[in-house]
Amino acid sequence: MENGFMIEVSNLTKRYAGHTAVSNISFTVGRGEIVGLLGTNGAGKSTTMRILSCYMPATAGTVRVAGYDVFTQADEVRRRIGYMPENNPLHPEMRVREYLKFRARIKGLGRRQCRERVDTVIDQCSLGDVSRKIIGHLSKGYRQRVGLADALVHEPELIILDEPTIGLDPNQIRSVRQLIKDLGRTHTVLISTHILPEVEMTCNRVLILHGGKILAADSPENLQKLMSKGSQVITEVAAPAGELRGLWDQLPEVEHFDISPVDGEFQRCALTPRDGIDIRPQVFALIKERGWSMRELTRNKFSLEDIYVRVTRPNEEEES
Ligand SMILES: Nc1ncnc2c1ncn2[C@@H]1O[C@H](COP(=O)(O)OP(=O)(O)OP(=O)(O)O)[C@@H](O)[C@H]1O
Q1: What fold characterizes domain 5-220?
Q2: The pTM is what?
Q3: What is the position in ligand 1's atom list of the atom closest to the CA of 44?
Q4: Which of 54, 125, 243, 272 is deepest in the core (most CB within 10 A)?
């Protein structure tokens, strides 16, 4: 492959009768990355994943997986992708091992290779205890693992998981997330989710999808850094409000401030710094210099949730 990209999406658009589900999006995923597609219901996550996995054609644009075009070279792409759809269409009447063998055969594995790979994925997805059980009798967590084992059985380089932890209990969620992280050591992984902590915990990079468009793409940490520009510094100081006002007025790094009484002599100061600089050291030094008592000095940190709300409501600032 000429470049390091496992996925290259260029100007992808998907229209269903009269409705644009994905609108001219472009992104790349490098080999070995774990990337999260984050978005609320209807954002276009499943549609994007279905196109990537050759389950349906795009209306416009191109998608390449490992350098192969999903439309004109679908067989090459399918061989390299393990896709777990949102409502995993498992055969509920089949037994776990029997089902995985059947799936491996469909995916073109020979008899011997099939046996070896089924053993491996049963082990990898901790399905040993239930390998002879009927799928329909399994808990949702185990069924999800069977779906993962199915996605992995033909040794794909790229794993695409649509809402892999939906409907699971907290313990099951934990173990499926751990499994995804483990897989990320040897595979490229694209997962979709509407659960924010999920991307924070499992992904190196996040693409925020909203209304069929990508609104932000970066590592969870960078998104947080980006958003913490303009974050306020809060401090509670025992001092006369007038003197505090005079102090913040003279500090060129403070663009705006609010002072409100809390209790006793304490005043709560909310300081908005210019250019997003961290003014806590200056604030601390100034208050110490004056011998005032301080009981809080914090900087608001934006969570990924705040970021998500911000980017998906782009007009909020204009309105206020
Ligand atoms: N087969 C279809 N025919 C018509 N409209 C569709 C079809 N599939 C999806 N849509 C619409 O396209 C938009 C994007 O749907 P998509 O399933 O890709 O979103 P999503 O982000 O995966 O959300 P969810 O988590 O709810 O599946 C939605 O408005 C949905 O109603």
Answers
A1: Rossmann fold (3.40.50)
A2: 0.77
A3: 18
A4: 125
